[in-house]
Amino acid sequence: xxxxxxxxxxxxxxVEDTTVQLCWGDLPAGPVTAMAKGSxxxxxxxxxxxxxxxxxxxxxxxxxxxxVVWADGSTTVSTETLASPPGELLGRVATISDLHLxxxxxxxxxxMTEAKAGLDFPHGHxxxxxxxxxxxxxxxxxxxxxxxxxxxxxxxxxxxxxxxxLVDRHPDLPMTLMPGxxxxxxxGDMAIPLTIGTRQIPLIRSIDHVDxxxxxxxxVDTTIEGRGDGQIATRQDEIVDLVDQAGRPTLLAxxxxxxxxxxxxxWPPGIRAPESSExxxxxxxxxxxxxxxxxxxxxxxxxxxxxxxxVASTRDWPGVWxxxxxxxxxxxxxxxxxxxxxxxxxxxxxxxxxxxxxxxxAPGDLDDRCISHAWA
Length: 376
Description:
Blueprint: E1 11-15, E2 20-27, E3 30-36, E4 42-46, E5 49-55, E6 63-70, E7 73-80, E8 89-96, H1 114-117, H2 125-140, E9 145-148, H3 157-168, E10 175-178, E11 195-196, E12 201-202, E13 207-212, E14 215-220, H4 236-245, E15 250-253, H5 275-283, E16 288-292, E17 299-303, E18 306-310, E19 320-327, E20 330-337, H6 341-350, H7 358-361, E21 371-374
Parallel strand pairs: 8-9, 9-10, 14-15, 15-16, 16-18
Antiparallel strand pairs: 1-2, 2-5, 3-4, 3-6, 6-7, 8-19, 11-12, 13-14, 17-18, 19-20, 20-21
């Protein structure tokens, strides 16, 4: 058994135009204070272990040094805030993906458990993580939530029952739900539900859209029954029509990512070329940002001017949700770690997967998580 990794260091995990999220794996109990020039100090009463705080009131597109002080130490971290996209802020939307509700084990050999981490969640760590992510996204200002698949860990009634409990805990938040490959796998024989929860939120099995001020959200089911990879060619014409008819830019949400190559260069496989390449070519010269889940990692790609983002899972390291701030002339993506302390403790433990390689693979760099993108 490999030796567990040391706790993750205090670092800048997310930046926006006026905020910075700091996260750490282990600090002693007591006050933690963050101070940046031109911004009021932020102090939290830290219970010890993993934690997070957000520094607000910063100037856009500006280098910033943040002094952090805790019970028996201090450090200074440096970063730069994002530029604000052109025009006024019109609204905010959030996404989560790869919830895997009902899962009890993690890691390459599926040997990592809550008990081994010294944790116990009443409905399991996937539920606690997803619930905290939604709560924090709403506090950030999200007016709509898109869930990008792998809601259930397998096609079992008890897993989809947890999905119903989750959406019902947030009755005032409009949601768009789409399946992932785990939702349509062959591990269970139940019929895939048409709706989730007593709210009866539809589980999209084709394509749907929601219009917000300054943005159209297009959600596409890219799953193939019983398989892990995805498809989009059968939806291509309808997607392009929805984009062209929107009269506003589009956030296109899928579960599987659009691969650059026909062969698999990293796991899991998504929508392979040439299918993905033909689809991206059909969207060229349009104001579209494509975002997916499936890979449990954070990455941003620019292919011929079309930005694509992969956003990591709520369930495992680093444990995130994504926020999209809609401006008149562009959009900002911020990927924040889920900050609920017990959930952070699970995510710190889950870093040790694949002999510790997951710690380095999944988070990506800061510019793989946070961008400011102006529409053409």
